[in-house]
């Protein structure tokens, strides 16, 4: 081969190996939504605005995940770990969040109408302007939670620890 043909061949092989490496890397990393649905583990994932309605996410690990604006209507997050998760403006109507850990989570402006939050851990959570109409908060820990402008019409607060530490009877 001539020297120019050798150089062209080497560049071509280098380019081909680079493209192959990129292809393998992109296949090896599932998208966050796919990872969450298959493994039920996606801490620190960006799931902003995702449609996860009716998803079966019992005991899912979503600590520090960004779920702002996500559609989680009717989702089963029973026993899920959502500490410090961003759920701002998320749609959680009818979601099952019983026994979920949501300490320091941002649920401001979230729609939690008729959600099941029984025994949920919401210590220090931001529920500013959240809609909790008809929500079940029985035995939930809301100590140090922010409830400014939250709608609690028809919510069940029996046994709940309120932000001031009082237990609702």
Overview of the molecule:
This is Pentapeptide repeat-containing protein. Residues 1-28 form the signal peptide. InterPro entries: 5peptide_repeat (IPR001646), Pentapeptide-BTB/POZ_domain (IPR051082). The chain has 169 residues and is mostly helical. It is built from 2 helices and no strands. The longest helix has 26 residues, at 3-28. The radius of gyration is 22 Å and the shape is elongated.
- Range of strand content: under 5%
Shape: elongated
The largest sheet, given as strand count, sense and whether it forms a barrel, is: none
Low-pLDDT runs of 5+ residues are none
Quick one: how many beta strands? Answer: 0
Distance between the termini: 89 Å
Structural class: mainly alpha
Secondary-structure element string = HH
What would the average pLDDT be, to the nearest integer?
Answer: 90
- In DSSP terms, counting alpha (H) and pi (I) runs of 4 or more, how many helices? 2
| Integer-rounded radius of gyration | 22 Å
Helix content: 10-25%
